[in-house]
Write a structure and sequence with these properties.
The chain has 383 residues and is of the alpha/beta class. The strands form three sheets. It has a six-stranded mixed β-sheet, with helices on both faces. A two-stranded antiparallel ribbon has the order 1-2. Strand 7, helix 13 and strand 8 form a beta-alpha-beta unit.
């Protein structure tokens, strides 16, 4: 057997060259026919090689001597299929990863990253162990790698495992499995599943949170509120913090322009406001969790576009919030309009009617275009 097939029977070569025909005639010791194709009995070749002593063990041994070990294609295919089985099982359990699973197949990504089925099996098994832990409520990348693979650098940029897992994280985020190649995009994709690169690079922007006197972070918030200035908190400052904010209504926006304008116009009197700044970072999640634990009630506003809808869905999966001028009625009644709506549509989990009106009108409305209304809402909470 070579390549999973027996070395017996007849093999044919279409459009044989004269050199090929002469070679067969010399081997067989007879004319090879006059047609355009050339047919040879492998059993005859095997017998000739054995009788001549050129290859006492026959054709199979001669083949190995000439071109080296020939893999058994059927066995190899079965091994590659087995290496992909952990991915199949994971995608069956988590339908949200179906796009990612299809992308792996269409690109042959596992084969490109692993040199053989054994390496591939180790890679896919490790990927499943990591993805089983995601999304997380907040974990450092190195710690996640250490706990799931035994190697704190197993998910470092450029590692095969990082490529596989990060592509899945993008799909969980609601974006295509291939990013734009920037460090910022990678950070955002990891953050979308609760993974941060370190405790200092992950931060959150807020304004008007009263804070408390019991912790350093609480005092920082209190000083920032007194000054009416935005406050940037790192994940490190939030990890063990007791904020002392209390059961306020917390307004949550998507873009920093809302928070900056509120600081300019409302100053120290601005009610609690948190900016997710696009896809929420680990620090954003931590702050929202702390505020929720303090009894905060949330309302949320984002851009009226498909990216804004997806971010709203992501936040709503983590905390309960009420729409803050972020529903079909508001979109329909807003005369301001930005550019054309582009991208892949998404349902709004808080308002099933929002997607149809967005598709019908086909324009996006960023938060910058409705700032006066948002600021008036914040001003109303001051009284």
């Amino acid at each position: 057997m070579v390549n999973g097939k027996p070395l017996s029977g007849i093999v044919s070569l279409g459009s044989a060259t004269q050199d090929q025909r002469r070679a067969i005639e010399r081997l067989l010791g007879r004319r090879a026919g006059t047609g355009s194709s050339l047919s040879v009995s492998l059993d005859e070749v095997d017998a000739i090689l054995r009788r001549s002593g050129a290859a006492p063990d026959g054709l199979a041994d001669a083949t190995r001597l000439l071109i080296g070990a020939v893999p058994d294609r059927a066995t190899e295919a079965a091994a590659w299929a087995a290496a992909h089985e952990p991915l199949e099982e994971l995608a069956a359990q988590r339908p949200e990863l179906a796009t990612w699973r299809g992308w792996l197949d269409s690109t042959g990504m596992v084969r490109r990253l692993a040199s053989d089925p054994g390496t591939a099996s180790a890679l896919t098994s490790a990927a499943v162990r990591v993805l089983t832990e995601l999304p997380s409520k907040g974990i450092a990348l190195g710690r996640l790698a250490a706990e799931t693979t035994g190697d704190a650098h197993g998910l470092d940029e450029g590692r095969p495992l990082a490529t596989i897992v990060l592509s899945a994280a993008r799909c969980l985020r609601g974006t295509p499995p291939v990013g734009d190649g920037t460090a910022g995009e990678r950070r955002a994709s990891w953050a979308a599943v609760g993974v941060h690169r370190d405790e200092l690079s992950s931060s959150v922007l807020c304004l008007g949170l009263p804070g408390g006197a019991d912790t350093v972070t609480g005092r920082i918030l209190a000083l920032a509120k007194e000054a009416g200035e935005p406050c940037v908190l790192t994940l490190r400052q939030l990890n063990a913090a007791v904020l002392g904010v209390g059961p306020w209504v917390v307004s949550v926006c998507e873009n920093p322009i809302v928070l900056a304008s509120a600081a300019d116009e409302l100053g120290p009197g601005c009610p609690p406001l948190v900016c997710v700044n696009g896809q929420p970072s680990a620090a954003v999640w931590r702050l929202l969790d702390l505020l929720a634990a303090d009894g905060a009630r949330f309302r949320y506003h984002g851009d009226f576009d498909w990216g804004g809808i997806r971010i709203g869905n992501t936040v709503r999966d983590r905390i309960s919030w009420q729409p803050w001028r972020f529903d079909a009625a508001t979109y329909t009644g807003t005369t301001a309009a930005g550019g054309p709506l582009a991208g892949r549509p998404a349902d709004a989990s808080w308002d099933p009617g929002l997607r149809p009106v967005l598709e019908r009108r086909g324009v996006r409305i960023e938060e910058e275009l409705v700032l006066p209304a948002l600021l008036n809402d914040l001003r109303a909470l001051m009284s």
